[in-house]
Amino acid sequence: MSLLKSLTSNSSAFNFKPSQSTIAQTSPYRVLLRTACSSSRRTNSIDLFYSRGISSVKVVSFSNISNYCTYSRDNVCSSKRRSRGPVMAGKKASEGIKQEDGKYKHTVDLPKTTFGMRANSSVREPEIQKIWEENQVFKKVVEKNSGGNFILHDGPPYANGDLHIGHALNKILKDIINRYKCHKCVQQEMYPCLIPHAHFSHSPFLSLFHTSLPLALLSLSLFLTSHTSFIPMYYQIYYIVIDYVQKLSLDQKARNDLTPLKLRAKAAKFAKETVKKQMSSFKRYGVWADWNDPYLTLDPEYEAAQIEVFGQMALKGYIYRGRKPVHWSPSSRTALAEAELEYPEKHVSRSIYAIFRVVAAPLAPSSLLQEFPNLCLAVWTTTPWTIPANAAVAVNPKLEYAVVEVKSLQDQDPSSGGTIKKGLGLVLKDEKKPFLIVASELVPSLEAKWGVKLVVKTRQLGSDLENYRYIHPIDNRECPVVIGGDYITTETGTGLVHTAPGHGQEDYVTGQKYGLPILSPVDDDGKFTEEAGQFSGLDVLGEGNTAVVKYLDEHLSLILEESYEHKYPYDWRTKKPTIFRATEQWFASVEGFRHAAMDAIGHVKWVPPQAENRISAMTASRSDWCISRQRTWGVPIPVFYHLQSREPLMNEETIDHIKSIVSQKGSDAWWYMTVEDLLPAKYRDKAAEYEKGTDTMDVWFDSGSSWAAVLGKRDSLSYPADLYLEGTDQHRGWFQSSLLTSVATKGKAPYSSVLTHGFVLDEKGFKMSKSLGNVVDPRFVIEGGKNQKEAPAYGADVLRLWVSSVDYTGDVMIGPQILRQMSEVYRKLRGTLRYLLANLHDWKTEYTVPYHELPRIDQHALFQLENVVKNIQGNYESYQFFKIFQILQRFVIVDLSNFYFDVAKDRLYVGGSTSYTRKTCQTVLAAHLLSIVRIIAPILPHLAEDVWQNLPFQYITQDGSVAEYVFESRWPISNERWLSLPVEEINFWENILELRTEVNRVLEVARTGKLIGASLDAKVHIHTSDAGLASQLWKLCEAKNEADTLHRLFITSQAEIVPSLNDEHIANIPYSGECLIQGKNKVWIGISRAVGSKCERCWNYSQQVGSFMDHPTLCSRCYDVVALQMPSEVAAVS
Ligand SMILES: [Zn+2]
């Protein structure tokens, strides 16, 4: 375009005459418009334009004195109306649009790549996974690691059904760590003797800058720094077995038909099939593991190791058999561990206030009984069915109790009725009312609750009530009042506690002190036994409860029944209520090694740190661990019982013998082999006197033995593990059971660090449930839902990006909106990588420009890159992936594309294919590509591999071989030289970037005011009274290489430092603004139209356009490029 054409086409811009205030209001920026068009100028904009055109000549002469610099193209990034300069010229030409720009299209270096903008993940990700699998990439990477191990021990939780988003969170977190450790050489500290650290401050990339060293030699020395990290991940299945059996239990007949061996065979088959299915899902998430060799708790080797752990604990005296109340599930007919319980909302119990008649008092000068012959103890319970097992009433010795007289029953029903169901007992309607003992503090609330007047007659301390005796309301036994513990409070009830040692943990402990009988007249199905007399055969949670309440009322022992909502333990599998019930069970005595366990907790690193408090509190307060279960699947408790004496037989010889049988034949042998065969030779002649035990071990004992069965048995692994990583619920589950078995047998924790994550909620923070319709299924996230518009196929990497973005230390959220955001971040990241690939299409490693020869902007870019790599590495090490996500988003997507990439386009596209500044830029871009692709690889392995497979050049690893896959390239080695940029230089670039932002704001206003279209149409004028800053800016104007010149950084055609702001100068600048740099240095920024004519090739304005006879539309830079690159061809075209 000629200058005249350009003027004409742009002159219309000056017909629009916004007032100053309009611009100030509509502009989002705080730009000061000091001198924008005076009214006289606005009335004649065309004239103004011409006059400006003429004055530009003067400016040039002026600028010759005041350090003036020239030319550029392209635009500010913030504008949507971004002019793409030479790119557009080239594109338009290639699209066949006839225009003059096309003449130089062959001289423009347009980006080129085979790497697609769209991820097409549903096709591409499986292709990449196939490449990994077929080429055994994981195995190769692992095998090349020859140093120490990092053991991330994969745990059993979460595998109790179809995979859900919680599994994805857990397994992907593990995979990010696994891949990072595989990728990264973590063991330098452990093997300092190999090669001193200092030798390796340069990356192979940088080393290539110093081409004097033979490549092979370099590679060898660097190779030695890379030690191994190998994390096989295993997968555990026993929950699936249980689920299967649970399904079976719905059909009681089918279950009855199964012999234990048939049941076990079916369960194992089902389990193995499910494992296969789940594995394929995990593989689709991109989880790398030794899937061919998982650990299964039903493997004979595993089972034998578990029996070994049990045996070691038994021989140390930590295993005992006792009759104790345990959580019992009538619906699955077995004891349950705390970790097998759940506490659903809104459980309602039938609570009762019952009274027991006092019949005797300890010998004392004055007993209450003499004064109040009709005296009763009032108790409160939420489990009326435990009254038949009552053995005592417990009081708190420090509490004050009152004897009250019940008076004046109010007519209306008791207060606080509402939705709570209440029923008053007959005793209150009886004429002869008893005197009651209750905690003094509770008198007012009981009056309100019962709807009576309670007159306090006298008071006594709880300790004075000890050894009063009362008559059991059902079977007329005489029972004592006993002193209980601090668990007796005045929060609820009466302050007196009905004590049934067979049905409660605290009751049991109190009972032990007083030698109370452990009554538990309830069978495996949760029905009263004959011991319960008239209630025999009734279901304790149903009609049994009703019968007891009715009986008490009829016998004037019930004051009130009311419904009561509270937390109550349910069986996590059947979702039905459990009971506390005393049975003969095997226990691990936690008391025996509690101190050691607490001590071991202190030696473990807990992430987040507050997890230590949780597990400490749980371990400190836990009672002995009931490890026996009444099931026919699982690992048997290796014990024989004497037929007559019922004495158990279990010692080192018997356990060893069973262990060796199980290791060969599996635990089925316990069921199909005879007692004679199962006993060691020494006891065989007595086989007829014994029978096998029928209990199996708690599943938490199964999983809690994995450190021994897996870490302790496989050659490639070691104990303790470096890391366990599961959900927070495992503090009372796997983390704890593993800790207890390991401390009991080895005296230390099985892990050196433990990481916990929260649960996944929907994006409003609600729990996911089918009824709410807010469930996010990882399969649909990856493959897309039925409606691909609403639920597109995002692919595994978007899911993984989400995992990296959340702060997993608390509960995390996911939903359609969040996934859309993730997909957008992914898309931008992909775009960034594509930019890098496309601008390196003609790059070769040997073109690398030595660091000390790089322009300042390039050295600074490498400094920033290295900082980011270092920072991200630190966050991988501390497992703070959400910080990596934030850094990536900020640096890769925002910073790079807003500044370096934006500014770089000029020299990349039009600087000339072989020009120095294009080479330096590509040197920097190659460093960015190689670093970014490797640091994102643990989180986004498919994207990273896709980039790697499209690399336009080969990457040589430290050992001199070509890295065919991204994980063969290893983690970037830190580069101290790039980091050692002087502080002044760092500060300087901070100033420049800040100034650039301000310049962009004024440019935007000038664009809105139609002075300019693209930023290349502009010339920037800068004045600052800060001498230091001014001199720095002058230096940039004079920069010896084009890459550092100030107007290139602004992407304007010209930039000028104005030594002083006189009125004459300001009068000629239509748009201006002021700002503070670093909050202190005042800078004035002016924008005018660029001087000279627009170069056809690069769209920069220059006064040299028109001065070359053979290329009259080119600037001198383009003239040099064109003349050098294709003199004959271009000459022919023109
Ligand atoms: Zn040009």
TrEMBL record:
Residue span, Zinc finger FPG/IleRS-type domain: 1092-1121
Domain Methionyl/Valyl/Leucyl/Isoleucyl-tRNA synthetase anticodon-binding: 858-1022
Matches recorded under PROSITE patterns: AA_TRNA_LIGASE_I
GO biological process terms held by the UniProt record: isoleucyl-tRNA aminoacylation; mitochondrial translation; post-embryonic development; reproductive structure development
InterPro entries attached to this UniProt entry: aa-tRNA-synth_I_CS, aa-tRNA-synth_Ia, Anticodon_Ile_BEm, Ile-tRNA-ligase, Ile-tRNA-ligase_type1, Ile-tRNA_ligase, M/V/L/I-tRNA-synth_anticd-bd, Rossmann-like_a/b/a_fold
Domain Aminoacyl-tRNA synthetase class Ia as annotated: residue spans: 128-186, 247-813
Annotated EC: 6.1.1.5
UniProt entry keywords in alphabetical sequence: Aminoacyl-tRNA synthetase, ATP-binding, Ligase, Metal-binding, Nucleotide-binding, Protein biosynthesis, Zinc
CDD domains cross-referenced by the UniProt entry: Anticodon_Ia_Ile_BEm
Gene Ontology cellular component terms for the protein in this record: mitochondrion
GO molecular function, one term: isoleucine-tRNA ligase activity
Pfam families linked: Anticodon_1, tRNA-synt_1, zf-FPG_IleRS
Catalytic activity: tRNA(Ile) + L-isoleucine + ATP = L-isoleucyl-tRNA(Ile) + AMP + diphosphate
Family of this protein: Belongs to the class-I aminoacyl-tRNA synthetase family.
Protein name as it appears in the record: isoleucine--tRNA ligase
